[in-house]
Amino acid sequence: MKLLTHISSIFPLRGLGGLFLVCCLLFAGCGDKNDPYIPEPEPPVTPPAEKENIVFNLDGNLIRAGKTTAGDAVFNIDGNYIRAGEKATGDVVFNIDGKLIRAGEKKTGDVVFNIDGDYIRAGEKADGDIVFNRDGVFVRGGEGDENNIIFRMIKWLDDDYKIYSGDNTKGQPVFRIIKWLDNDYKIYPGNNTKGQLVFRIIKWLDDDYKIYSGDKTGGQPVFRIIKWLDDDYKIYSGDKTSGQPVFRIIKWLDDDYKIYSGDTYY
């Protein structure tokens, strides 16, 4: 009744016209409160980008790059030997000694990894950092299926780099890279700076490097590194210089590089 009296004071009621006006105003006021709420449609949610941390897939005795059997054969398993490429005549990169994976073909080679169930850890101790994990036929980086940073490379001294598993920047490294000569680098397991080499890197052309097994400096490389952009390198299997890379190296800070699987870089 207060609303009706207030309206009458503003608009004097004159017969049916005035009553009609009052009814319209009352119904309009009621409609504001009683109209059903129609929610706005929610905008579509963009799915998060898949974090691809599949480094290799197991195809019989072949270890291929990426998640499909169309990927390049990076290694082949020949009994207790892990050889470069798809042929059983490829250079021996590692040998399997029980639960240990050693550099080269001899059981006296330095331990690079140890096998802990479905985990592949750095070094010979069962509490070493998890470098890879086996997920069915996939070999993933790190402990689970989300960490897409496979390695991190930190420069410690001039011509001295340490490579850690995952996003680590300290602790026990997986590899150590030492420059011996211009355009010639040696890669040792763990924190070593001498002894059994795992790989050797030779610069062939500007922005073009070949990685050989052991102490070799020629022949069929295990990997090839090609610079694509400033601070952006791709690592291919064998002697390739294009196609699907095995790893991608991105410089994030001075003397700090992140290594991803495949062609990812996020």
Describe this structure in words.
With 266 residues, the chain is mostly beta strands. Helix content is 11%, strand content 44%. It is built from two helices and 20 strands. It has a ten-stranded antiparallel beta barrel with strand order 1-2-3-4-5-6-7-8-9-10. Residues 1-31 have low confidence and may be disordered.
List the helices and strands and how they pair.
Elements: H1 2-10, H2 15-34, E1 54-59, E2 62-65, E3 73-78, E4 81-84, E5 92-97, E6 100-103, E7 111-116, E8 119-122, E9 130-135, E10 138-141, E11 149-157, E12 160-165, E13 175-181, E14 184-189, E15 199-205, E16 208-213, E17 223-229, E18 232-237, E19 247-253, E20 256-261
Antiparallel strand pairs: 1-2, 1-10, 2-3, 3-4, 4-5, 5-6, 6-7, 7-8, 8-9, 9-10, 11-12, 11-20, 12-13, 13-14, 14-15, 15-16, 16-17, 17-18, 18-19, 19-20
